[in-house]
Amino acid sequence: MAYKKLKPHKMDEATREIQLRQIWKEEYCDKTKPISTHDGIVVSFYEDMFDHCFFESFNKKEADKSILSLNRLEKMMWVKDTLEDATALMKQGWDKQKKRYDNNKRVNFVKDGYIVVISPNRARTKARFITAYEFQDDENKEKVKNSPDWIR
């Protein structure tokens, strides 16, 4: 599957964020164009999720989400592509507070370290988008690859 990349670094810097928020709104938040996973789960997206997904933290410990990430924005369309990709690994998400894997979070893993995290409802028919990003280190990629499979 060929994943489409945007080119945020070529956009006018003064209006780049506005343009990208508009793409997010039109591609993901339009309720008349629902997005489903390859196995039929309808995923909900909201405009305010843009900040969490496309900003990175200057200070990882404080998780300040203060830097607009051109790398993450370049792969904005990969969110939909990953959810629709039947070859994606489906793994359980990690619960940071409880320090254990959680089958109520599903991680779709593709493209050498790109993940999309969703939170399915109990019936596994609908889900809420949580985040998406690309791992920058092999250790975390391996942790996800070796995590328990997600159970429908």
Topology (elements, then pairings):
Elements: H1 16-28, E1 35-36, E2 42-44, H2 49-54, E3 55-56, E4 67-68, H3 70-74, H4 78-84, E5 89-95, E6 100-110, E7 114-120, E8 126-134, H5 138-145
Parallel strand pairs: 2-8
Antiparallel strand pairs: 1-2, 3-4, 5-6, 6-7, 7-8
Task: Describe the structure using short key phrases.
152 residues, two-stranded antiparallel ribbon, 26% helix, six-stranded mixed β-sheet, 5 helices, alpha+beta
Description:
This protein is of the alpha+beta class and 152 residues long. It has one domain. The strands form 2 sheets. Strands 1-2-8-7-6-5 form a 6-stranded mixed β-sheet. The longest helix has 13 residues. The relative contact order is 0.18. The mean pLDDT is 91.
Count of DSSP helices?
A: 5
Topology as H/E string? HEEHEEHHEEEEH
Number of domains: 1
- Number of strand elements: 8
Which secondary-structure class do the elements indicate?
Answer: alpha+beta
The largest pleated sheet is described as: 6 strands, mixed
Q: Write out the strand line-up for the largest beta sheet, numbering strands in chain order.
A: 1-2-8-7-6-5
How much is the average pLDDT?
91
What general outline do the C-alpha atoms trace?
Answer: globular
Task: Tell me the fraction of residues in β-strands, as a range.
Answer: 25-35%
What's the gyration radius in Å? 15 Å
